[in-house]
Amino acid sequence: MSRPRQGMLLAVVAGTGITVCGCAAAPTPQMNPAGAAPATTTVGVASATEPPIGPTPGAQTPAPVGASGFPMPPPGTCHTGTFNGQPLPDPVCSPGSTNPAVTQANIHDTICRAGWTATVRPPVTVTDKIKAASARAYGLGADARGELDHEIPLELGGDPGSLTDVANLWFEVGPIPNPKDGTENTLNHATCHGLISLVTAQSTIAHRWPTAVEDAGLIVVGTKVCLRADPGHCVAR
User: Fold this and answer.
1) If DSSP states are collapsed to H, E and C, what string results for 116-164?
2) pLDDT tens digit string along 62-105?
3) Cβ contacts of residue 93 below 8 Å, gap of 6+?
4) Which of 167, 209, 124, 148 shows the shortest CA–CA distance to 30?
5) What are the C-alpha distances in Å from 129 to residues 94, 175, 212?
6) 120: domain range?
């Protein structure tokens, strides 16, 4: 939803399960000061069968941290993808990145503490500018309906972002609130109650948010979220 220096996770969208809107070529990945292009991770094709027991291996690549700034792409160079009717960020323009200040060891002092995200969320004066620029980058009009979204949400240790570092920010089209909000909350509860690790939550939502719960080896049962491999091990969500 709408991060200090951050890592970048670039994804290459593959398979017929995901479509990318628009026909313009995607921008060339930004180079870091050392001259090396960010690492890429291939996104797997969604299975048409029941998700396997346990976490999905292809969705477990951690989002690295510590890279330099990621500037806003030029107008019209980014394209919203879709999966099962839900919007996805352009993997080149909005690869996602994590906040190095959040670790597995300190989650109960950070993402699991009520009100903590407000301490790291950029001010509206900054996010409004990023939102408008991101809408232009995605070829959207000024009246486009949606929000500035953190691909890896703050409540899962996503990088807050800044005017010069937007790897974890994108204009998410659609209603507010939206289905991604529920996925973020479910993964936060599962992480804070020890069902999954912080890295699993971060990597699965960056990989493909509509399937992140299943990819993390979880299943939602009513008002609870449980381990798929151990359906009796649940927490409230």
Assistant:
1) HHHHHCCCHHHHHHHHHHHHHHCCCCCCCCEEEEECCCHHHCECCCECC
2) 654 544 589 999 999 999 999 999 999 999 999 999 999 999 99
3) 26, 27, 73, 77, 78, 137, 138, 170
4) 167
5) 16, 20, 29
6) 10-42+55-209
CA atoms of 10 and 39, how far apart (whole Å)? 6
- Map tokens 């069968």 to a residue: 49
Q: What angle do CA 235, 148, 20 make, to 5 degrees?
A: 90
Q: What is the pTM of this model?
A: 0.75
Q: Of the candidates 17, 220, 188, 190, which has an alpha carbon nearest to the alpha carbon of residue 113?
A: 188
Tokens 């807050």 correspond to 160
Residues contacting residue 31 through CB under 8 Å, at least 6 positions apart: 37
The answer to whether residue 126 is domain-embedded is yes
Look at residue 197 and give its three-state secondary structure. Answer: coil
* Domain assignment of residue 110, yes or no: yes
